[in-house]
Amino acid sequence: MKELILLVLVSFLVAVAAECPFSHGNDGGNGGANAPPKHDNSPGYSPPANNDTTPSPPASGTPAAPGASPALAPAASPALAPELAPAPAPSLNKTNNGSLSPDYYANICPNLESLVQGAVQGMMASSPIAAAATLRLFFHDCFITGCDASLLIQNPNNDDEQHSSENMFLRADGYKTIAAAKAAVDADPQCTNKVSCADIMALAARDSVTLSGGPTWKVELGRYDALGARASDVDLPLTTEDVPALMKRFSAHGLTVDDLVALSGGHTLGATSCVFVNSRIYPTADAFLDPGFASQLQGICPSNLDPNTFVFFDQSVTSFDNNYFLMVQQKKGVLFSDSALYFDSSSKGIVDKFAADQNAFFTQFVSSMVTLGRLGLKNAANGEIRAICTKPN
């Protein structure tokens, strides 16, 4: 693949996917998990404190510093904490859509989709990482106890999903996007406290993809919010896992290898800390990396490990496209779990298909997102419509 036009990437911090396919891990900085969670009586979500930096977008057409690569340029961010072993979580078998319907709110909150999309668009205009961070939240939420907005809950003792070691560095930009969407929805008298936080997250994830140049789809709606959240429920895929290990997790949720590869394509909007790269390049580069690419990584990620330095997954930082698969195909997958997709017979052909045909990737991504959105559905008996997304009613 030809080298790309260099861009100035100083101070540009894209959303980080620190551990697994499709955005597992952090989104480029401390989401406030080390600060006391905020609990107020206002509607919507109170984003975690301590993460107010708004990065600047890259300046198109301007040469970067010598030796920099658009897909690999570093950016500053608060340090990451050492990765902790994940706690076991219950298996989530794929549910059928049950009472979900794209028209669920037609007579309850008829302007819902335009209200959410307007909020997402506004956040994306102010933060170039809002889309990636918001998309990431949806996967993290659904993959734990189902698509129930349990990730948004902030317990007084910090024993919640948001404060787990695997979620504590999700970017605040994603939480702020959900907060803005919730506020916009509740500002409409027809909609106040009638739309679940889980459905707002599902719509915001779709809009983040679409407004970044990706596909659109009808989002099934009618979810209920979880009644609580526990850190011990968090068990997300790891960057060090190969396809069989990843598929053990995905298949437990009723997801296929096509879902794994397509959802991994969410990395097209992401980046990762050198914390999750250095083991691949020191003391020597692993065999799954292109030697030239490994040298570029070594030029960015120091051997003495700087967790504040980041590597972009592909060259189109804020565009939702299939460039991630071109990188993987050329042995330029940044994480081991990325590279593994091209060295397993069950997933290699899918990577080739998506690299050659962006429409094929978009079609499967939509299907996979719909399937993901059906995980762990709650109902009126074991769920609720939260008035404040950060705490149960």
From TrEMBL:
Its cofactor is heme b; Ca(2+). It is found in: Secreted. Removal of H(2)O(2), oxidation of toxic reductants, biosynthesis and degradation of lignin, suberization, auxin catabolism, response to environmental stresses such as wounding, pathogen attack and oxidative stress. One of its GO terms (biological process) is hydrogen peroxide catabolic process. Pfam families: peroxidase. One of its GO terms (molecular function) is metal ion binding. Its main location: secreted. It comes from Rhynchospora pubera. This is Peroxidase. Its EC number is 1.11.1.7. Ca(2+) 2 binds at residues 268, 314, 321. Ca(2+) 1 binds at residues 141, 146, 148, 150, 161. GO terms for cellular component: extracellular region.
